[in-house]
Write a structure and sequence with these properties.
Shape: globular
Structural class: mainly alpha
Distance between the termini: 38 Å
Helix content: 55-70%
Largest sheet: 3 strands, mixed
Strand content: under 5%
Number of strands: 3
Radius of gyration: 23 Å
Length: 613
């Protein structure tokens, strides 16, 4: 899973999340011109430079103007995203999550979309840029019906998860940076109070999360609130020599007087107001909400970039599960001497020698797997990323509630490498046979390779370099899990059993996500299905199902994208025969950044035509 920029992506995905994040405009801003006008004078030059560069490669003056306005809007909409891209003029801001700001944001979005739709007579390259941006804006508009801000409560998407790692993102080079971080901390309490008010409004109109999601979030908040203040990740900057004493005092006061009471109010809202009226198990999917069917349909289109029905996806998942079940049973018989699928999965779960004993072992295995992948990379790819990738541990406050690992991109200004976060919580539940495939997906040749290359495509406009279509991004990372066997990154059949279990995991998502959100599946039914068809540990399965409940549709992207990339590779191999070069195919797939699956197909068809001459 990739956590793109400030998203729980996002986890979630750069352009998508940036445009949905509440606006950072001042209260009198009414459009993109006002956004730029209202920026501080000191911000004009840096924002101006960023927005000017946003239209790189675009020849149409009209399209270039829209793209520049769009990018200026994106950067001011999401100050944390701007920070990650090296644009620091909004480093003292978080954003305004109010309804008024959200409505202004949607107005700007829809106006940009209307102007894009009116453009005609563009050359093919400009036409592609226009179509990609327009499709994305329209997809966002379609999901407005979901009204997530009124009801979503998830251990994966909440103020603590959103801002707990802020010191890792925010530069702390001098006193000015420290004071800007303090200003961000001071904005957290009011922002949390706005979220509280929106959740109350949602509850009054019949919108509320399911009970288990709320219980998990309350437990997560309780764990953090019981920690001594000095142990909070937000106060880690107090130990840095670049943070002067007056800034330290301000940071501590902001957390103690602002953040802690606000999180306590948020926690009490969840426990005392929302939980008693929460949706019961079996009604946790969006299908149980007003307009839930329209919401899920829009989310399918957004996350897969295809027009598929929930029933089609459910059936596809069942077919994929049947196929992978056979592969797992056959390899299990060879590697473990097991008699069938159930025996293979039981052996993988019950043999404690197949699990790590310490957090250090988990981290060491991740580091070693990344090093092997770095060494193998040049033989399979023509274009290689310049940004480095390193291993880091998932922060303790979220480790018990999140997935086995995730990736956060390198900062575009080179100030931070890409980071593969490995979850070392309860190491005895972390299988050794998953270590290689997990590293492949989250780092190289998965997320880091693809995302770093995209960020470094200087010939593309900025929104293309930092786009994050889920089907492409996650589809690529899942594709590389099998590619890694060709690259020699799996040394044993146990590594390959991990790969097959992970493939079954993503196939199961097609069944479970659609089951939860359109068929009334309970968490227990979803967890049981995953236990029957994957070797995932029980804690991972529980956290995964919780993620699907709170992030509808995103889990569909992996297998849908992987299948398309595999189909395109087969088409290229069959058409080109001896002319097929794997590195050239990979460069064709990765060479335009993340794109929709229909655009990817057209790119590969063009590569095949050129290579056939």
């Amino acid at each position: 899973m990739t956590r793109r920029f400030s998203l729980k992506f996002s986890a979630e995905l750069a352009v998508w999340g940036s445009l949905l994040t509440a606006t950072a405009c001042r209260p009198d801003a009414t459009g993109t011109a006002a956004i730029v006008t209202n920026a501080r004078e000191s911000a004009v030059s840096e924002l101006g430079a960023a927005s000017s560069a946003a239209a790189t490669g675009i020849t149409s003056p009209e399209l270039a103007a829209i793209v520049r306005e769009h990018w200026a809007w994106v950067l001011t909409e999401d100050p944390l995203f701007a920070t990650r891209l090296g644009m620091h003029d909004y480093d003292d801001r978080l954003g305004d999550p109010s309804d008024a700001a959200r409505q202004r944001s949607r107005g700007v979005r829809d106006a940009l979309a209307a102007r894009l739709a009116a453009l005609a007579d563009l050359d093919p390259a400009d036409g592609l840029n226009r179509d990609l941006l327009l499709d994305e804006l329209r997809a966002q508009a379609a999901t407005d019906v979901c009204r997530f801000e009124r009801w979503r409560a998830s251990a994966n998407d909440n103020p603590l998860a959103r801002w707990g790692d802020l010191p890792r993102v925010h530069p702390l080079r001098d006193r000015r940076d420290a004071m800007r971080l303090a200003a961000r901390y001071e904005a957290m309490g009011p922002a949390i109070d706005v979220e509280i008010a929106l959740l109350r409004e949602g509850l009054a109109s019949g919108l509320v999360a399911d009970a288990e999601s709320i219980r998990r979030l309350v437990a997560m908040l309780d764990g953090q609130l019981l920690e001594p203040l000095d142990a909070w990740s937000l106060l880690e900057p107090l130990d840095r020599p670049t943070v002067p004493e007056d800034a330290r005092a301000r940071l501590r006061a902001a957390v103690e007087v602002g953040v802690v009471p606000a999180l306590t109010r948020y926690r009490d809202l969840l426990a005392h107001e929302l939980l008693p009226r929460a949706r019961p198990d079996g009604q946790g999917g969006v299908g149980a909400l007003p307009s839930g069917s329209s919401c899920y349909e829009a989310l399918i289109a957004h996350h897969t970039t295809l027009r598929l029905s929930a029933d089609e996806i459910h059936a596809l998942g069942l077919a994929e599960i049947t196929r992978i079940d056979g592969e797992l049973a056959a390899l299990g018989k060879r590697a473990l001497g097991s008699s069938d699928l159930a025996a293979t999965l039981e052996a993988l779960r019950e043999d404690r020698s197949l699990y790590f004993a310490t957090a250090e072992e988990v981290e060491s295995a991740a580091t070693e797997a990344l090093a092997r992948a770095k060494a193998a990379m040049p033989r399979y790819f023509g274009r290689l990323p310049q940004a480095d990738c390193v291993v880091a541990r998932v922060p303790g406050y979220k480790a018990a509630y999140t997935t086995v690992g995730y990736y956060e991109p390198a900062h575009a200004d080179g100030s931070k490498p890409g980071e593969y976060f490995i979850n070392v919580f309860d190491p005895h539940t972390r299988p050794r046979y998953e270590a290689r495939v997990l590293a492949v997906h989250e780092s190289i040749p998965g997320h880091h390779l693809q995302i770093a290359i995209a960020q470094e495509l200087a010939e593309l406009p900025a929104f293309r370099r930092h786009a994050g279509y889920s089907a492409f991004v996650e589809g690529w990372a899942l594709y590389t899990e099998r590619l890694a066997d060709e690259m020699g990154l799996y040394e044993t059949d146990l590594d390959r059993l991990g790969m097959l279990s992970f493939d079954a995991w993503r196939a199961a998502r097609l069944v479970v996500d659609t089951g939860i959100h359109t068929q009334g599946w309970t968490r227990a039914r979803a967890e049981s299905f995953m236990r029957e068809h994957t070797a995932l540990a029980a804690n991972n399965i529980s956290n995964e199902v919780d993620r699907y409940v709170g992030w509808p549709g995103q889990a569909l992207a992996y297998k849908i994208g992987q299948r398309e990339i595999l189909a395109l590779r087969r088409m290229a191999e069959q058409t080109l025969g001896t002319r097929f070069e794997l590195s050239a195919f990979h460069d064709a797939v990765l060479g335009a950044g993340a794109v929709t699956l229909p655009v990817l197909r057209r790119r590969v068809e063009a590569y095949i035509a050129a290579a056939s001459r």
